[in-house]
Amino acid sequence: DKEVRAIFLRLFAQLFQGYRSCLQLIRIHAEPVIHFHKAAFLGQRGLIENDFLTKVLNGMAFAGFVSERGPPFRTCDLFDELVAFEVERIKAEEGNPPKMIKHVRELAEQLFKNENPNPHIAFQKVPRPTEGSHLRVHILPFPRINECRVQELLQEGLARSQGAPPATRGDKKCVVPAGPPVGMFICS
């Protein structure tokens, strides 16, 4: 799952490389408006005739992307780092599948770490019972629960969680790195 997401993360980072240099902050309204200059983005990349990218940029999803990721001061994430700092690496890996796969696996690992900040708290999947398992005679009845032992386990868990670092990390806002300008990514 994470590797598929990492592949899409790379794809969108490649597709939108340099998008920040085409953002314009308009301050004539009470609330500043962020505008994306589509013609400049397509023109500088030599993709004016590209129907797919034009449709992507005209879509509602991209408008939401610009409004969410347009502000110059917000919480940064893995996508911002890819777009700003990994441009050359992604270009270099285009002809080398083993390096590309290695990078995808690294990204997948980072995605997993972002979603699971406390790796020691892992949830195990319980397999589904097989069909007809409820008809078996040799199944023993469920044992009685020892209430004292349950309370002890709860108290131990609470004591451990109070000493552990918080499960959620505080999102710190920072200046979003702009990355290289769009003109650097002329595509054929």
TrEMBL record:
It comes from the Eukaryota. The lineage of its organism: Eukaryota, Metazoa, Chordata, Craniata, Vertebrata. GO terms for biological process: regulation of Rab protein signal transduction. GO terms for molecular function: guanyl-nucleotide exchange factor activity. Signal peptide: none annotated. This is MTMRD protein. GO terms for cellular component: cytoplasmic vesicle. Residues 1-76 form the UDENN domain. SMART domains: dDENN (SM00801). InterPro entries: dDENN_dom, DENN_Domain_GEFs, Tripartite_DENN.
